[in-house]
Amino acid sequence: MKSSEDDSSASEKFEFSNYKSLVFAEIELIERVFEIRQNFLNFPDSERIVKPILQRIYKIRSEKLILENKFNLI
């Protein structure tokens, strides 16, 4: 039974580590979008550049939501 508890604990630690990585990735990508929008304010293709980054941010947020529900963080 102890091995099962250890496996469960290791799995939770891995998932929480994954959650922290998602948080940091989201912050970094948001900063990149902000920088791009500031540096290319009048550049017509800036939204084309930003679109895939925003899509990744939305994907990260959905992945985070799953883990937040699992860990009762929300």
Describe the SSE topology.
Elements (H helix, E strand, L loop, with lengths): L1 H38 L6 H25 L4
Task: Please give a structural write-up.
This protein has 74 residues and is mainly alpha-helical. The protein has one domain. It is built from two helices and no strands. Helix 1 runs antiparallel to helix 2. The mean pLDDT is 91.
What is the average per-residue confidence, as pLDDT, rounded to a whole number? 91
Secondary structure category? mainly alpha
Terminal Cα separation, in Å? Answer: 31 Å
- Percent range for helical residues? over 70%
> What is the radius of gyration?
17 Å
Name the beta content range.
under 5%
Total individual domains: 1
Structural shape: rod-shaped
Low-confidence stretches: none
SS elements, strand count: 0
Order of helices and strands: HH
Largest sheet: none
**Quaternary class:** single chain
The tally of helices reads 2
